[in-house]
Automatic annotation (TrEMBL):
One of its GO terms (biological process) is ergosterol biosynthetic process. It comes from Chaetomium strumarium. This is C-8 sterol isomerase. Keywords: Endoplasmic reticulum, Isomerase, Membrane, Transmembrane, Transmembrane helix. The lineage of its organism: Eukaryota, Fungi, Dikarya, Ascomycota, Pezizomycotina. It comes from the Eukaryota.
Length: 230
């Protein structure tokens, strides 16, 4: 009598999937590394450009946040190289992430960049998240505070300042009262969406807001990909 095979039903299929994922990982790892080393070539926004337009908006309109936001959007959309990448439909959507709550207006979203106005008129506090992109928070009105473990004093960011959260870093942050900012992230944007949806899935369960966020973000990302913007 022939000896029975020690393998169980389905074990060969499972082994096949393991081999598939191992091969996929082996192929994708160098591709990811190559793209990650060349992310700069995909960026359409310049750091000094965004800081300059935000500062001039603040200098011109003071504490009139609505006017500052319109100034920023109008100036960016007026530049030939950016016109087709700027969303001028000012739709505000609630955003819950890391325990903090505010609202955002998505000006641009693509695989390697996003540009939004984020803020709240009543204050909020939370966890920044640990992200796959550098985040530049240009304060327009109000003040943001940030805390790093081991420090005994807060980082203070008033209007016209920029809070740079480096890729992979994490902080506690607080907007004690009304505060709005031009937030720009550059790096790998899709993995950041998991953090953005976590509170909605586990706490608020605000499905209409989540759906609207997915719709607007997806429309922006796919539309920009169709234009050749990675």
């Amino acid at each position: 009598m022939a000896p029975k095979s020690s393998s169980t039903p389905g074990s060969s299929g499972f082994s096949g999937w393991l081999k598939f994922f191992a091969i996929l990982l082996g192929v994708m790892t160098p591709v990811y590394y190559l793209l990650d080393q060349n992310l700069e070539r995909f960026y359409i926004f310049k750091l000094d450009q965004l800081h300059d337009v935000a500062k001039r908006g603040i200098e011109t309109y003071g504490n009139d946040t609505r006017a500052i936001v319109r100034h920023i959007v109008d100036e960016l959309s007026g530049q030939v190289s950016l016109t087709s990448y700027i969303n001028q439909d000012e739709e505000w959507i609630f955003n819950n992430a890391g325990g903090a709550m505010g609202a955002m207006y998505i000006i641009h979203a693509s695989v390697t960049e996003y540009l939004i106005i984020f803020g709240t008129a009543v204050g909020t506090e939370g966890h920044t998240g640990r992200h796959t992109a550098d985040d530049y928070f240009h304060i327009l009105t109000g003040t943001q505070l940030a805390y790093v473990p081991g420090e005994y004093e807060p980082e203070v960011y008033p209007p016209s300042s920029v809070h740079h959260l480096r890729r992979g870093d994490v902080k506690q942050y607080k907007m004690p009262e009304s505060c709005f900012a031009l937030e720009y992230a550059r790096g790998w944007i899709p993995p950041m969406l998991f953090f953005g949806f976590a509170d909605g899935l586990s706490s608020t369960l605000d499905l209409p807001t989540m759906w609207r966020t997915v719709w607007v973000t997806g429309k922006q990302m796919l539309g920009n990909l169709a234009r050749g913007k990675f």
